[in-house]
Write a structure and sequence with these properties.
Ubiquitin-like (UB roll); five-stranded mixed beta sheet; 158 residues; globular; single chain; alpha+beta; 16% strand; DNA polymerase, domain 1
Length: 158
């Protein structure tokens, strides 16, 4: 197979890479571009650990081909903070101890940001529904939900 040339934008920066036609976006991000924040938890789109945004739409990067990123705007966990300044979601996850082993955390943060971008004042039910595609074996979800709701309240007041 011959490799495919892809021109895209990742976290606001232009990016180009070569990939195999059957290579997932997750593998491209991790293995070709060194963006290792997205994790492979299941490889079948069931756990959300590999969540990224593509043109502001939440997707599992293990289900998308790298070649499909051509001309698209990709957002990953690495783009959440601004330099040394954590995104409010990242701060609230720390404040609420909404993480333990960390495998699922990047996916939850990307999904939560996508929610708040879409709906800056979600109800608890909406947060739980939106994050239902992200699985965690450690936290029990309540601290994650509280962190997202606290972030929404802080951002609304800012």
């Amino acid at each position: 197979m011959s490799q495919i040339h892809v021109s895209t934008t990742i976290n606001g920066d232009p990016a180009e890479f070569l990939c195999e036609p059957d290579e997932t976006l997750l593998d491209v991000l991790r293995d070709r571009l060194g963006l290792t924040g997205s994790k492979e938890g299941c490889g079948s789109g069931d756990c959300g650990a590999c969540s990224v945004t593509v043109d502001d739409r939440l997707v599992c990067s293990c289900l998308m081909l790298g070649a499909e990123a051509d001309g698209r705007d990709i957002g990953t966990i690495e783009g959440l903070a601004e330099g040394e300044h954590l995104h409010p979601l990242q701060r609230k996850f720390l404040d609420h101890a909404a993480l333990q082993c960390g495998v699922c955390t990047p996916g939850f943060l990307v999904a939560a940001k996508a929610l708040l971008d879409h709906n800056p004042d979600p109800s608890e039910t909406e947060v739980r529904y939106w994050l239902a595609g992200n699985l965690c074996r450690c936290t029990g979800y309540d601290k994650i939900v509280r962190a997202v709701l606290d972030t929404a309240a802080e951002m609304k007041g800012a």
